[in-house]
Design a protein that fits this description.
binds 3,4-dihydroxyphenylalanine, rod-shaped, BirA Bifunctional Protein, domain 2, 12 helices, alpha+beta, two-stranded antiparallel ribbon, 2 domains, 7-stranded mixed beta sheet, single chain
């Protein structure tokens, strides 16, 4: 009898070892410990046994059945606990890794270095009033500078801002002087599109107002920014410029990296790309921001982030950057 019971139990253990699905285990359960199982019929045969045999085998039969039931239940429990789906992360599903957009990367590089120099990052509205985009920046309604910055005038009387310089006024109104802010953002112009002009592009504005701020401070900041982005000194030229909101005004060009300064469609054959407008803040602008020009001076700058990205990554057509065309953008493979 003992041998027989041991064999039934071992058979059950073998069967359970081979089973991995719940359905198989349940089948084994009914086969080995169910109503029609062998152990059940042995148990039923107890009643026909002699008193001696009953005494001899009763408990071993019962214990075996109990053990067998426990084995099955344990296996079922194990299965339940193991239902943690495992992922094979070595499988290549064909999903490509993305990367940051070139403009996002240069925006971060510029703001990172400015933050280290104590600039606060602010942002202003893309839909703007004429006052903040032009008038407060010393560009009244009849000023010819408006011609160079034609934009989209909206039915609600507002416009899509042509420059991030609107942030100068917002920031002065909000924080007063002294102040050190930068404002990256999207800007718009009604442009004829070509390799170097888009109707939507990105700039970053910077403004420092304090007592005794000078052009040297401005130059130092510009140099630091360019060095951070290009990771080396690059060819830069500074020339007098005109912006109604700065006096004096400068334009900073960098040698075109697409053609190495020889001249190409991207730089309109000039060999130089205009990248930064800057200067000392015009007293009228300080006044518009509620700051006394007899006490404070300041400098401001606007960097073309889209152009900066083009130069850094040698992208020869600005239109690629707004196209959202992965086939083109992934060529830069920027991590
Ligand atoms: N807002 C000018 C533009 O879009 C760039 C600029 C020039 C910004 C001079 C400035 C500045 O802050 O001082 O062309």
């Amino acid at each position: 009898m003992e041998e027989k019971l041991l064999k039934i139990k071992n058979d059950l253990i073998d069967a359970l070892n081979k089973a991995s699905r719940e359905a198989d285990i349940l089948n084994i359960k009914s086969e080995y410990v169910g109503k029609k199982s062998e152990i059940q019929s042995i148990l039923a045969s107890l009643k026909d046994m002699s008193v001696d045999d009953k005494r001899k085998y009763g408990s071993v039969i019962n214990n075996t059945k109990k053990e067998m039931e426990e084995l099955v239940n344990k296996k079922l429990e194990e299965l339940e606990n193991n239902i943690n789906i495992s992922f094979d992360d070595t499988i290549n599903y064909g999903v490509k890794n993305g990367s940051l957009h070139p403009v996002t990367i240069v925006a971060k590089e510029v703001t990172d270095i400015l933050k280290k120099m104590g600039f606060t990052i602010v942002s202003g509205p893309e839909m703007e009033t004429e006052y903040y985009n032009f008038e407060a920046l010393n560009i009244p309604k009849d000023h010819p500078a408006r011609d160079m910055q034609d934009t989209y005038y909206l039915d609600n009387g507002m416009l899509l801002r042509t420059q991030t310089s609107d942030n100068q006024i917002h920031a002065m109104e909000k924080y007063g002087a002294p102040i050190r802010i930068c404002a990256p953002g999207r800007t718009f112009r009604n442009e004829d599109l070509d390799a170097n002009h888009e109707n939507t592009f990105f700039q970053i504005e910077g403004m420092v107002i304090d007592i005794g701020v000078s052009i040297e401070n401005l130059m130092y900041v510009m140099q630091s920014v360019l060095r951070e982005v290009f990771k080396s000194d690059i060819n830069v030229r500074l020339r007098p410029g005109f912006f109604p909101f700065t006096e004096p005004s400068y334009e900073m060009d960098i040698s075109c990296v697409i053609c190495g300064g020889k001249g190409c469609p991207t730089c309109k054959n000039a060999g130089w790309i205009e990248l930064i407008g800057c200067g000392m803040v015009h007293p009228n602008v300080l006044k518009a921001g509620g700051i006394d020009p007899d006490v404070y001076t300041g400098f401001a700058f606007g960097i073309g982030l889209t152009r900066l990205a083009m130069m850094k990554y040698k992208i020869n057509d600005i239109r690629v950057l707004n196209s959202g065309d992965i086939r083109y953008l992934e060529k830069f493979d920027i991590k």
